[in-house]
């Protein structure tokens, strides 16, 4: 399967993959990391988080990684990380978004102070 | 609340297919709990959003996962095999719920509202009336009733009443705490055996021992709440010495956080301690509450008999206290269960609220049912086709399953509403719902909510299910094509029922509102306008003579404040004590052969009657020159005067009060001293300096043109009396309003219920009319094509709406008649339907009907006959 076949990613999936790009995390870690980056902008609740993980695993984008807290509480017992294919997908999505942002910028729709770029 | 939220979350997870639940359910629930636990310090609103988002997430995921399952099956076996399997029925149900989000959300919200209101009130009822008190062997705790008792009474019973073991006494007293500044704090004195009887434990340190309590040792224990609030949870408090009423008292411990103080004995005291020698006078006040535990095997009748014996013994020793003028025993000390004593007056109004909440619930369920009916009607075509294809019984099953899922979601929403509702009730507590802080939504109540939801859901789902089963496929197909004639009878019947229930609630709550307004406007016997109050302690460890002198100095100084026309003070002033309580002092008066055993005694200073605005009927009020020894002047209220002298003159007559000679100086018109909802009672007034200075707390009343500032009063008092403590400063009018806080609180809740019920009923009406208008489009088109004017057709819609609602309202009013006496428990004196309230009710209802039928009527009037006939 080609990485671009999986595009576009939903904002939720993209955020999860973004925080996993720094290395494997458990469910609680993902939730915290997403909240740290975007606050409440993208609503991420536990059920939807695990539905995303389930589908991303089915598609070979995410895999179960070595557990960091095998004896911890349930929300920390399993870690998830990106597969090589997953890394390609998130990279392709980032590139796609960058291209779109460039178009928006050319149309003078992005406030340069606000973009954080 | 976190536990409950997680519990619901886990329950909702069962909606999801088993593979998701097995793979990720445990993790998701754990994550949900963790995210709530991390946000514990956040605001309630934030947590509520988090909970709602979490719950909604599960429902979304469950629907999406089922859709996946269905798609996978279909691609695998190429078709409809799966539709016949059980799991697919659930999938089908979830899909059809998600496909009509507006109606589904409406049903969930309506059920949630009804279940939420009922669950909230049920939790309160459960916490206040049903759940046993949190004390060991609570069912055998008896309180000795008939007012409060003196310490010698208690000692006598402790010695002679054998079936109550142990017997303990307690009483709340304000204390002066000397810290950086002098502060008034709530204290309670308790007898030996108190902590054991109520199963108290210490969070840190220890509790005073029975030996210490018995020997009046200077030790105290601090309540957990006061320890947190006043001493910032400082563990160093234990072992420290506090200066209370001028004497050093050692704090030996802090009470456990979960210890609920028995309010009749200790109020909500900050500090609990033993008696001390300085209390000699207070011992004879009838301010002590006595509680004992019934011995195993003994009955309440035995306790009653033994206490009556004590009263008879008392009658032999001091007949004037125990006997009325006919020689009959007036004090018998009947024991009552502590549970009942604590629930007390809250029982009847809570039951009214419960009935109100149940009515609201019925309206909501009725409304949910009409929504489901409308939905079933809209899906007639689909259902008919599936029936023709042989779905048959499975179809009814699916409809029921749908309503079951919706009602579970409604239960979840209802629990959320209940959590919020309970926080509101606790925030607005008028101060006399017993045990309000201890009210929780526990598993039993949550279970009951789920059961209510189930019943509601089955009710709402049953009608469409039965109808889909009754009618043959051919008829259904014909109707789907828009031609058969379905009578909207079920929908119409629901609207009538809803209007009846809403009317019942409305009339009830309007009667209560009206009664409350009457109470607020009733004449208390004095004029509360332009009168200000200041509670001032004139020296708790001072001598009586010093207190009297201090009070006099403060009175003189306050009289010089600008704009003040009159100043006076009393140990209590009208409306200061309310909610059915009484306080402080009562005794008997004797005039020749007349003996009146129970009269309220109010110690007051000169100037009191003009400051409060109580007119004199005869004689004069007290002056600073009145004697403080020998024959003391007294002022009677008109009831005491009538009881003693009939129609004869009172002023100048001599009276006997226990061992004191009195002479009547004046007579006043009686006032409602104990709150606007209480009757005027026989009472007399004695001079504070001669007979009242055993009490150090006085409430000064200032009458004048300009409101005095608190700072101004505090400065003036500190100039002439540096040791005096000014606590509350307020107005006579606010005291009067506060005395009705409880009635206002219940009235408010009942009114909210009634308004919500009205809105729901009108929404139901609007929905039914709209649905009717759609359904009759073809017929309307024909009639318009034949020349019926549009305005006339719109009028016919309005007429139908008004007659439907009028029928419901009439039924509601008829149902109200036998129930009306219950409203009297909310606000006394309202057992009739007020004509003005009825007129407002009729106006409100008509207005609501017009609003609700506006859009349907417009729709009908705007029907284009050509398009309607073409079936567009």
Structure commentary:
The complex is a heterodimer of chains A (about 120) and B (about 850). With about 120 residues, chain A is mainly α. Helices cover about 50% and strands about 10% of the residues of chain A. Chain A has 4 helices and 3 strands; from the N terminus they run αβααββα. Chain A has a 3-stranded antiparallel sheet. The model of chain A has no long low-confidence stretch (mean pLDDT about 85). Chain B is an alpha+beta fold and about 850 residues long. In chain B, strands 1, 2, 3, 4, 5, 6, 7, 8, 9 and 10 form a 10-stranded mixed sheet that branches. In chain B, strands 13, 14, 15, 16, 17, 18 and 19 form a 7-stranded mixed sheet that branches. Mean pLDDT of chain B is about 80; it is low at about 80-85 and about 480-485. At the A-B interface, α2 and α3 of A face α2 and α3 of B.
What's the shape of chain B? globular
What's the tally of helices of chain B? Answer: 30
| Total number of strands of chain A | 3
Q: Care to count the β-strands of chain B?
A: 21
| Rg on CA atoms of chain A, Å | 15 Å
Distance between the first and last residues' Cα of chain B: 52 Å
Radius of gyration of chain B: 34 Å
Structural class of chain A: mainly alpha
What is the averaged pLDDT score of chain B? 80
Q: Order of strands in the sheet with the most strands of chain A? A: 1-3-2
User: Can you tell me the residue ranges of chain B where pLDDT is under 50 for at least 5 consecutive residues?
Assistant: 78-84, 480-487
Question: What proportion strand of chain B?
Answer: 15-25%
Estimate the mean pLDDT confidence of chain A. 85
Helix content of chain B: 40-55%
Order of helices and strands of chain A: HEHHEEH
- Largest sheet: number of strands, sense, barrel closure of chain A: 3 strands, antiparallel
Helix content class of chain A:
40-55%
The low-pLDDT segments of chain A are: none
């Amino acid at each position: 399967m080609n990485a671009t076949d999986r595009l576009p990613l939903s904002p939720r999936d993209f955020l999860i993959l973004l925080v996993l790009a720094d290395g494997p995390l458990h469910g609680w870690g993902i939730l915290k990391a997403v909240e740290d980056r975007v606050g409440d902008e993208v609503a991420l609740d536990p059920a939807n988080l695990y539905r995303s993980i389930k589908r991303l695993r089915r598609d070979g984008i995410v895999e179960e990684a070595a557990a960091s807290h095998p004896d911890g509480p349930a929300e920390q017992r399993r870690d998830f990380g990106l597969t090589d294919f997953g890394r390609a997908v998130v990279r392709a999505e980032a590139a796609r978004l960058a291209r779109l942002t460039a178009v928006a910028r050319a149309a003078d729709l992005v406030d340069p102070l606000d973009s954080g770029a | 609340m976190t536990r409950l939220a997680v519990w619901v979350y886990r329950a909702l997870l069962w909606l999801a297919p088993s593979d998701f639940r097995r793979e990720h359910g445990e993790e998701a629930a754990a994550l949900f709990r963790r995210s709530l636990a991390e946000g514990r310090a956040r605001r309630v609103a934030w947590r509520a959003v988090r909970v709602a988002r979490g719950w909604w997430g599960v429902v979304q995921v469950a629907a999406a996962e089922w859709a996946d399952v269905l798609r996978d099956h279909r691609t695998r076996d190429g078709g409809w095999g799966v539709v016949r399997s059980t799991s697919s029925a659930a999938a089908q149900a979830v899909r059809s719920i998600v496909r009509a989000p507006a109606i589904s959300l409406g049903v969930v919200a309506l059920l949630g509202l009804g279940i939420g209101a009922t669950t909230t009130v049920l939790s309160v009822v459960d916490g206040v009336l049903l759940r046993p008190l949190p004390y060991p062997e609570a069912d055998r705790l008896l309180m000795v009733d008939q007012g409060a008792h003196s310490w010698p009474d208690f000692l006598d019973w402790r010695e002679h009443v054998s079936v109550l073991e142990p017997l303990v006494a307690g009483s709340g007293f304000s204390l002066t705490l000397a810290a950086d500044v002098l502060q008034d704090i709530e204290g309670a004195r308790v007898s030996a055996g108190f902590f054991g009887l109520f199963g108290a434990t210490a969070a840190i340190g220890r509790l005073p021992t029975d030996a210490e309590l018995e020997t009046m040792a200077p030790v105290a224990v601090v309540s957990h709440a006061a320890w947190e609030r006043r001493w910032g949870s400082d563990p160093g408090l234990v072992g420290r010495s506090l200066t209370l009423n001028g004497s050093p008292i050692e704090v030996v411990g802090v009470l456990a956080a979960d210890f609920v103080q028995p309010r009749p004995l200790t109020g909500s005291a900050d500090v609990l301690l033993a008696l001390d020698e300085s209390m000699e006078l207070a011992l004879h006040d009838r301010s002590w509450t006595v509680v004992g535990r019934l011995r195993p095997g003994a009955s309440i009748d035995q306790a009653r008999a033994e206490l009556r014996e004590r009263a008879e013994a008392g009658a032999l020793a001091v007949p004037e206290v125990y006997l009325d003028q006919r020689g009959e025993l007036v004090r018998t000390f009947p024991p009552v269960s502590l549970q009942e004593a604590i629930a007390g007056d809250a029982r009847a109004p809570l039951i009214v609220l419960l009935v109100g909440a149940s009515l609201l619930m019925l309206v909501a369920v009725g409304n949910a049912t009409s929504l489901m009916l409308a939905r079933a009607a809209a899906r007639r075509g689909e259902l008919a086709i599936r029936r023709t294809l042989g779905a048959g019984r499975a179809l009814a099953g699916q409809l029921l399953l749908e309503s079951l899922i919706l009602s579970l979601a409604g239960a979840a929403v209802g629990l959320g509403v209940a959590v919020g509702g309970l926080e509101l009730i606790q925030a607005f507590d008028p101060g006399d719902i017993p045990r309000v802080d201890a009210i929780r939504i526990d598993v039993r109540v949550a279970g009951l909510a789920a059961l209510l939801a189930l019943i509601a859901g089955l009710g709402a789902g049953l009608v469409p299910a039965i109808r889909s089963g009754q009618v043959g496929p051919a008829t259904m197909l014909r109707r789907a094509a828009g031609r058969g004639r379905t009578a909207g009878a079920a929908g119409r019947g629901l609207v009538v029922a809803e209007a009846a229930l809403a009317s019942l609630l409305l009339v009830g709550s309007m009667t209560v509102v009206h009664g409350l307004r009457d109470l607020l406007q009733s004449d208390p016997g004095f004029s509360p306008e332009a009168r200000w109050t200041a509670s001032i302690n004139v020296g708790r460890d001072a001598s009586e003579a010093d207190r009297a002198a201090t009070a006099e100095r403060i009175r003189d100084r306050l009289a010089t404040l600008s704009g003040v026309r009159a100043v006076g003070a009393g140990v209590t002033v009208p409306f200061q004590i309310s909610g059915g309580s009484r306080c402080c002092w009562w005794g008997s008066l004797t005039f020749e052969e007349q003996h009146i055993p129970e009269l309220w005694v109010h110690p007051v200073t000169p100037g009191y009657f003009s400051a409060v605005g109580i007119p004199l009927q005869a004689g004069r009020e007290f002056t600073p020159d009145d004697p403080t020894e020998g024959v003391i002047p007294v002022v009677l209220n008109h009831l005491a005067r009538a009881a003693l002298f009939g129609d004869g003159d009172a002023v100048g007559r001599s009276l006997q009060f226990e061992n004191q000679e009195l002479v009547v100086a004046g007579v006043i018109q009686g006032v409602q001293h104990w709150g606007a909802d209480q009757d005027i009672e026989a009472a007399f007034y004695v001079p504070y300096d001669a007979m009242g200075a055993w009490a150090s707390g006085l409430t000064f009343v200032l009458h004048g043109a300009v409101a005095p500032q608190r700072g101004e009063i505090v400065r003036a008092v500190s100039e002439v009396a540096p040791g005096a403590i000014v606590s509350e400063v307020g107005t006579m009018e606010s005291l009067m309003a506060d005395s009705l806080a409880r009635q206002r609180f219940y009235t408010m809740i009942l009114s909210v219920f009634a308004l919500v019920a009205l809105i729901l009923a009108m929404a139901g009406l609007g929905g039914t009319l709209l649905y009717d208008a759609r359904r009759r489009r073809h017929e309307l088109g024909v009639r318009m094509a034949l020349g019926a004017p549009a305005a006339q057709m719109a009028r016919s819609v309005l007429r139908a709406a008004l007659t439907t609602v009028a029928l419901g309202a009439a039924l509601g009013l008829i149902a109200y008649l036998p129930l009306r006496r219950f409203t009297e428990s909310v606000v006394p004196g309202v057992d009739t339907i007020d004509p003005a309230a009825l007129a407002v009710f009729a106006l409100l209802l008509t207005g609501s009907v017009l609003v609700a039928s506006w859009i349907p009527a417009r729709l009908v009037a705007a029907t284009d006959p050509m398009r309607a006939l073409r079936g567009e």
